[in-house]
Design goal:
Elements: H1 37-44, E1 52-53, E2 57-61, H2 62-73, H3 83-98, E3 99-101, H4 112-119, H5 128-143, E4 147-150, E5 155-161, E6 169-170, H6 180-183, E7 192-194, H7 196-215, E8 219-221, H8 226-234, E9 235-239
């Protein structure tokens, strides 16, 4: 797979309106440079493993690859405990970095995960789930740890997975203070539980909410490089 030459998107239309709803078939006779914002965002937010067909190439987003990898990784005991969860957080991070919603105020957050949960999970800015998923990602990504420290909130987390809880997370009975001697007294009291399947459902719901908003023309790019950055950062093409 390779990126389409830079010259091919010199004239991408930033503001050209499109007929709603967008469907894959309407893209078949379009060149890359003829795609407008909604159409390119539509391509970006597809979860399917099947590339979309344009006039001279087929195209997939990195988001579609990572969604596919999450679903695949969750099927196997040897992979489901780590990489799918990191990937889920990366999905949230990507859509939170890329988009604003036109229909609600911008959040106070700059972080992509937090923005995605506010915009597309539709959680209140102060909902504890935003801090929990952010802390989980930091622990796993920075040093593959199931403990995490949120320096902004001065909060410590000790995580474990539990498929029996009914929600994405369950708060500990007692908030952990970061002292490891405390965990020796019975760490289950200080543990924040995560249901990975419910987290996956939440993440994919966020992607689908973003897709729905795009169909309603309620998404806007927040990337400094605009549509070209969305293409070069997050799209893969093969000539046909």
């Amino acid at each position: 797979m390779h990126m389409h030459p830079a010259g091919c998107i010199r004239t991408i239309q930033e503001t050209l309106p499109t007929i709603m709803p967008i469907a894959p078939i309407e893209l078949h006779n379009l060149k890359i440079e003829e795609l407008n914002n909604q159409q390119m965002i539509f391509i970006h937010l597809q979860e399917t493993s099947v590339p979309l067909m344009l006039k001279y190439c087929v195209i997939r987003s990195t988001l579609s690859f990572i969604c596919e990898n999450v679903s695949h990784g969750m099927c196997f005991d040897k992979s489901k405990s780590l990489m799918p969860i990191i990937s889920m957080c990366s999905i949230l991070d990507q859509i939170g970095v890329c988009y604003n919603r036109k229909d609600i105020p911008e959040p106070k957050f700059k972080n992509g995960i937090k923005r995605a949960l506010y915009y597309f999970g539709e959680f209140d800015e102060n909902d504890v789930i935003i801090d929990i998923i952010y802390a989980l990602r930091n622990g796993l990504t920075h040093n593959v740890s199931l403990t995490s420290y949120d320096k902004f909130k001065d909060k410590y987390y000790h995580f474990r997975y539990d498929k029996e809880i009914d929600t994405v997370y369950k708060l500990p009975e007692i908030e952990w203070n970061g002292n490891y001697d405390t965990l020796d007294t019975g760490r289950e009291k200080f543990t924040t539980l995560i249901n990975v399947e419910n987290l996956k459902s939440l993440v994919f719901t966020c992607v689908r909410k973003a897709e729905e908003l795009n169909q309603d023309n309620q998404l806007e790019l927040r990337l400094s490089g605009g549509l070209k950055q969305l293409f070069f950062d997050y799209m893969r093409t093969i000539d046909r």
